[in-house]
């Protein structure tokens, strides 16, 4: 049987240690490269942080699998067994430009089900963590269950790009939502945006395309506080593939899904 409490203790210890290294890196010069396009950045710290986690996990749990954004983990064809899904720095653009508004995000899944979730806001030393069936926390503070909110009182996160001409969604679908909510926000770190939904700082977050490592930790946290996590069609996510994402408070999630995204 898996010892989740032991894994949780290790995970928190490794995340804190990695976070300290990331904060220390502010004193050193970053090596910044681009990936798929000129705005898709990666730094030596993204890579070193992923490698740090992989070394630690392999030393204690040689049978576990690892899926990491920067490719130092395993090539996975299924989520069978225990899989650590790691985004060493979510919000690399913010890390490079702002030295804030980024996070370390980790989800530990068993046969495709999220069991442990972590999002560490490194600069604020705020660790959002949760375990399936045991609630979610921000540091030592137990996050309360999410309460219903009306669309007109909701603050939602969304990238302005999706309300301009783009290849993924007709902007006329999202424009009414943007007009009807109380306010929109865009933080540039999917993981933090999910942590903010879990902690009630945001009421919902939606986006067109994310990778498993952007979502894995946040999904566990949001579900633990009664929030809903689906793609933009309302389907369950498969953490092996890229997908769109809609997370939010229970009724609000439903309203956004059926009154705006999939009307009629
Ligand atoms: C990105 C951030 C960003 C989201 C992008 C992600 P990265 O992750 O989460 O908010 O809009 O789609 O790729 O590359 O900084 O880890
Ligand atoms: Ca990236
Ligand atoms: Ca990411
Ligand atoms: Ca990343």
Q: Could you describe the 3D structure shown?
A:
- The protein is an alpha+beta fold and 264 residues long.
- It has two domains: 4-142, Fructose-1,6-Bisphosphatase, subunit A, domain 1 (Fructose-1,6-Bisphosphatase, Chain A, domain 1); 151-261, D-Maltodextrin-Binding Protein, domain 2, CATH 3.40.190.
- Helix content is 34%, strand content 27%.
- It has seven helices and 14 strands.
- The chain has helices at residues 4-24, 44-60, 92-98, 171-180, 190-198, 212-224, 250-261, and strands spanning 32-34, 41-43, 65-68, 82-90, 103-110, 113-121, 126-131, 135-138, 141-142, 155-157, 183-185, 204-210, 228-230, 243-248.
- It has a seven-stranded mixed β-sheet with strand order 3-4-5-6-7-8-9, with helices on both faces.
- Strand 10 (155-157), helix 4 and strand 11 (183-185) form a beta-alpha-beta unit.
- Helix 1 (4-24) runs antiparallel to helix 2 (44-60) and helix 5 (190-198) runs parallel beside helix 6.
- The protein starts with a helix and ends with a helix.
- Residues 46, 69, 87, 89-90, 92 line the site of one calcium ion.
- GO terms for molecular function: inositol monophosphate phosphatase activity.
- Keywords: Hydrolase, Magnesium, Metal-binding.
- It comes from Rossellomorea pakistanensis.
- Its EC number is 3.1.3.25.
